[in-house]
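Take a specimen:
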Amino acid sequence: MRAYTFAIITSFAFIAPAASAAQNPEVGRAELITKDVTGTIETAERKLKTGDKIHQNEVIATAQDSEAEIILDDETKLAVGPMSEIVLDSFIYDPAKKDGEVVINAVKGAFRFITGKSAKSAYTIKTPASTIGVRGTAFDGFIDESGEIALLLVDGEIDVCNSKRACKRLKRKGYFLHIRRNGLISDPRKWDGTFLGNVDLGRAFPFIGRRLRISPKVRFRRADLLGGRLLRRGVVPRVRPRRRPLRRVVPRPRIRKRF
């Protein structure tokens, strides 16, 4: 009886990973892992390292000063900033038709998203207060502890909709949308320090001005993104007007008067 029970337990030990792999297939790879990054499927957690395979339904979480750069099988690219979390909810891709479904759930923290070869309509990025549709896009996002969101358009266009299906389109590079916890979406604006409380721009958007392995082109400088009261306070260095060269003044000869 004991031998029979042991055989059943052993069988389940081999079947369970196979079933999990079938339900959570490989969908990409970790292009670069910096410091402490974990991947969790259901209750199974692992420490990720560069080159590891990434699976559907895997929760990618980063610790302090840690980052992850991921490439999915359709060449969609993701960067995950420090103290952040995303979930690869769904990934279906047909290379022949370049069609499928890519659903990513951004839970908290900072991320960069760059579309791959799938059709534009295939992409959905979920956040706590909005859903984002893309149009051949690269954009950065940040979700703070309270659930407020800021999105920065890097390239292309994005459509942002709240739970009441009120939507706004962002198509100005270097501009932000701010989504409140109640789903209210701002108009496009520069980073003026009026949203996300006292969160610093560099903390919310850690990929600004950097070359990433998945995105080697430098995207913006900090000064490119500031506006409003920050600009008026002189936080952004302004271009000084060119000074005209000084004209050399030749003194006139003094004429002595004769008496």
